[in-house]
Amino acid sequence: MARAVLAWLARWLFPARCQGCGRLGPEPLCDACLPRVPLMLLPRCRWCGHWLDPLARGVERCADCRSARADDLLLARSAAPHEGLTRRLVVRLKYHRHQAAAEALGAILRRWLRHDEEAARALPLDSAAALVPVPLHRRRQRWRSFNQARLLAETLAEECGLPVVEALVRVRPTRPQVGLAAAARERNVKGAFAARDECIVSGATYVLVDDVYTSGATLRECARTLRAAGAGQVVAVTVARPIREDLLGLARRWTAEMDRSSDGEGRAL
Ligand SMILES: [Zn+2]
Ligand SMILES: [Zn+2]
Q: Distance from the CA of 16 to the center of ligand 1, in angstroms?
C-alpha cells in the first residue's frame, strides 16, 4: 500500500516526459523527437561497422580491417551517429546518472533494429546465447549506481528476446578512453576483464553491448576475454558511434527517406 502511494506520488511529482523536448507523455522519446534522430544508415565496413565513404564503390572493408582483421570481435554495428540528441542522452546517462536516458536510447536502438536491414541480417540476434553488457569496475559502478551498458542490454533484450548475462567482470580499473590515442587505448584495456566461466557455454555466440564504439579497443578486449573462456563467435552492438561531420547530413537524409518510404522498409546497404 505504502509503495503504491509512493509510486503515485513519484509519478505526480515527476511525470514521464519526452527525453528530447521535455513534453509530458509516456514515451521516452515523443513522436516528434524519435524520427529526428539520424540512424547509422550509411555504407559500412562489413566487419567492424565503420562507415565507408559513400562515393567509394565496391569497397567492403575499412582500412583497418583490410590490413588486419581482429578475429576475436567478429563484427560490430551501431545504431546512431554520436551527435546531437543521441550524444546528449549518452552524457546524461553516464555522467549525470540519469537513468531515464537509457529508455530513450533504448527507443533509438529498437527503431534502428527494425529499419536497418543490413545490421539486422549481419547480427546473429536469433542464434546468440546471450547479450553481455561491457562491465564497469565496481568502483565506478558504485559511483554511478548502475551500469549503463546493462540498462541498454536490457532494452535490447526486450526487442530480441535474448537473456542478459553478466559474463564479464572488470578486474582492473582503467582510465577513461576519452582523449587517448589508438595504441594507448589498447594498452589501457589490456587484461582489464575476466570471464565468469560458469556463464559461458562453450562454442556459443555472444553479443556484447555498450554505449559508444570509439576505437573498438574495449569491445575487442572483451571479445578476446570471452573467446579465451570458450565462447564461439562474439559480435557487438553499441547505441552510438562517432562519424565524420559531412556524413551526418547523409545519415539524416537517408533516415528521413526511410520514414517517407511508403512500405516503411529500411535502405538495403
Ligand atoms: Zn519530444
Ligand atoms: Zn572495419
A: 11
| Of 50-54, 211-215, 230-234, the least confident | 50-54
Inside any domain, residue 150:
yes
Domain region containing 217? 28-34+47-52+70-253
pTM: 0.90
Q: Compute the distance from residue 73 Cα to the ligand 2 centre, in Å.
A: 11
Backbone torsion region of residue 170, taken as left when φ is above 0, otherwise alpha when ψ lies between -120 and 50, otherwise beta: beta
- From the CA of 241, the nearest ligand is 2
Ligand nearest to the CA of 26: 1
CA of 27 to the centre of ligand 1 (A): 9
Q: Is the pLDDT of residue 264 over 60?
A: no
Nearest Cα residue to 69 out of 49, 86, 42? 49
Ligand nearest to the CA of 16: 1
In a domain? residue 3: no
**d(C-alpha 77, C-alpha 73), whole Å:** 11
* 104-124 pLDDT per residue, tens: 999 999 999 999 999 999 999
Q: What is the pLDDT of residue 54?
A: 82
> What is the CA(255)–ligand 2 centre distance, in A?
22
DSSP code at position 163 = P
- Residue 65 is predicted with a pLDDT of 85
* Nearest ligand for residue 46 CA: 2
